[in-house]
Design brief:
Oligomer: single chain
Structural class: alpha/beta
Helix content: 40-55%
Strand order of the largest sheet: 5-4-6-7
Mean pLDDT: 89
Length: about 190
Amino acid sequence: MKLAGVRRHAEAKGWNVRVLSEGRSRAERIPGLLKRYRPAGCIVECSAGHEDLTPEIFGGLPSVYLDCPLSFHKGRCAVVCNDNEETTQAAFRELASNRPSAYAVVGFMERRAWSDLRIRTFRRLAAEADRPCHAFIGSGEPKNVRAKGLADWVAGLPPKCAVFAVNDTMAVEVIAACERAGRKIPTDMTLVGV
């Protein structure tokens, strides 16, 4: 979705955007790619941990980093970061408006710092609301294994549970798990994805 936003903005400005896959954007390939494409600037997606793509690799070319850890850039580059705590608080407020019996949070399919922060924040908010909070945290298992585990987990959630999926990909997986488990959204449980 970030890429879709970048593309919309670029189209409005008349800019050409070239997207490099994770495999093509390895640090050792960047100098050759910069020479070949001669970009006016670069946008570097860091939420998956591209800490090998340091500002120095881009040789002074204007570069913006998306969702990189603050310890990584140390003021050396332009950074756009999502506020994971505020995002989670907004989702919690929305879910709390239905006065659920319990809360649940579904983490990303693999361990990621942003997902862990959203999970911790959501659990804290549920505790402050004096409600139980169930968590499903992915550990990089194959999708079919995760799908079965998620369906079993969803089946065990209490009625009128409010579920927070840390991103839209996981929200889609929760919807599929609910269908598999015979749980109905929004009558049996509510769901917010980011």
